Amino acid sequence: MAECIFCKIAKKEVQSKIEYEDDNVLAINDVDPKAPVHILIVPKKHIPTLLGLKDEDKDLVYSVHKAAITIAQQKNLVDGFRVVVNCGPNAGQAVYHIHYHMLGGRKLEWPPG
After folding, report:
1. Which stretch is the leader sequence (predicted)?
2. For the chain, domain boundaries
3. What three-state secondary structure class fits 107?
4. Is 22's pLDDT higher than 80?
5. Of 38, 46, 65, 99, which is the active-site residue?
6. What is the 3-state secondary structure (H, E, C) of 30-90?
7. 18, 25 in Cβ contact below 8 A?
8. Is 99 a catalytic residue?
9. Which tens digit of pLDDT belongs to each residue from 63-96?
10. Right CATH number for 5-104 from 3.30.2310.20, 3.30.428.10, 2.40.30.90, 2.40.40.10?
């Protein structure tokens, strides 16, 4: 996707501070954080929404969880954290490249609002 900001970040065409990276995903700080720790875990493969995941993407899904675990340990999120993926306009998805919001560093309320 030529216009996708996350694809450009993954290809290093747009500079961003990378908090974590492996072969399948990278993690960057959210530009509009909703918690002291608000990191986006972004697959390098362009998939517009969660509904676009296929059986062949199981390693990618594992990499998302591995990234969340590693980041939680690095950020000392021992009291908990949340990982959220928005799918579609009614869920608040703003960028149509699947990405996971990792939030922590404070008590998170439910429902989030």
Report:
1. none
2. 5-104
3. coil
4. yes
5. 99
6. CCCCCCCEEEEEEECCCCCCHHHCCHHHHHHHHHHHHHHHHHHHHCCCCCCEEEECCCCHH
7. no
8. yes
9. 999 999 999 999 999 999 999 999 999 999 999 9
10. 3.30.428.10
The single-letter DSSP state of residue 99 is: -
pLDDT digits (tens, 9 = 90+) for 94-105: 999 999 999 999
- The closest alpha carbon to 61, from 80, 45, 75, 81, belongs to 45
* Confidence (pLDDT) at 2: 63
- Tell me the torsion sign for CA atoms 100, 106, 107, 109: negative
Cβ distance 7 to 42 under 8 Å? no
Q: What angle do CA 71, 75, 77 make, to 5 degrees?
A: 95
